[in-house]
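Section 3.1: Structural characterization of target chains.
Under the original work plan, the team committed to producing a structural model for every single-chain target entering the pipeline before any wet-lab resources were allocated. The record below documents one such target. The sequence was received from the expression subgroup and is listed exactly as submitted; it comprises 218 residues.
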Amino acid sequence: MNRMPQSVESANAIADSDALAVERTLAGDRDAFRVLVERHSQSVFRLAYRMTGNRHDAEEVVQEAFLRAYQKLGQFASRANFGTWVYRIAANYAIDRMRQRQKEEARREAPRAEGQEKTESDPVNLVHDGKPTPERLTQSIELRKQMQQALAALSHAERTAFVMRHWEGCGIEEIAAVLKSNSGSAKNTVFRAVQKLRRSLQPFVERRTQARVMGTES
């Protein structure tokens, strides 16, 4: 699975290097596992952050994913792709973490103040502008807020499917493996997520379109 544009030769080289690092780790070389962590932690964190919505939970997911990978390394198939394997571990743990957090919040008597938890990066690819106007900055902040609210309204499976498919470029088979379903169900989950997000974001899109027509958007 390629989450970054790269040649087949490069992907194969990474896979071969990972396999060697796994072999050395199983032989007792702990430094070899650090190589695997450094190589794949960034992509795992990106997935975890997009799924959980905050840095604290994302860091916990990354730590737990690599801990579980290390503990279960003896079960890792030598022909498998380590990056894909640890990615699935992280996705599954992120789902568990989101469910746990949802239960914790439901037990709280007072709702958490809106905006208490501030994300550190955009959840969507916003329009890049070297000199954004105040109006554009306002719209970007609003879009970020709308997208976060829309994602939060999705089920855990829908959010996972959307993030993996449209932000991480994962295949349907991989999404199905994480969701423990078949390809057909995974496709339907992705479709439902997209439809719900479109409905949630439609009012924002319509307001932007109207502003553009009226010439009030910069």
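The helical segments are 8-26, 30-52, 55-71, 82-107, 134-153, 156-167, 172-179, 183-214.
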